[in-house]
Amino acid sequence: MALHPFIVTTQWPEGRNSVGTLASEHLETAISIPEEMNGPGIGTNPDEMLLGAAATCYIITFAAILERAGIKIEKLSMESKGLVDVTNGVFTYKEIIHSPDLLLSSSVTQEEEAKAVKLADKAEKSCMISRAVAGNISISVQPVIRRFS
Known about the structure:
- With 149 residues, the protein is of the alpha/beta class.
- The chain is 31% helix and 33% strand.
- The chain folds into 2 domains: 1-44, N-terminal domain of TfIIb, CATH 2.20.25; 46-147, K homology (KH) domain (GMP Synthetase, Chain A, domain 3), CATH 3.30.300.20.
- It has helices at residues 46-68, 110-126, 128-133, and strands spanning 9-11, 20-23, 28-31, 73-87, 90-104, 138-141, 144-147.
């Protein structure tokens, strides 16, 4: 088994409402608790980072699966939404909803278009981050798939 390390470093100067930093090989940002959770709302936060990890993993996986299937795309974009429950002061990440918007090439057949719909769901099940949070966070996909005209 070959393990690939991903490394981030964090700095946190004081108590709960401080502003810290997070850095990795390709990312550097301020971090704090979001305003919605009575924090300073500076930079990003763990909730956005988790959603960002799930979204980037999903969209890259979906693009790779479409490419392997030979389905030509014009554009792939996506909005993802994370839903956090607050009960008795306890914050629990409940759900992630990915809404990919896929514009297929005009040369794509109806069969390939139908296959792209199935591959949108397969990408969620194949994504490493989705598998990592399985059983803890519900993840759904609501694709919009169109053909370029």
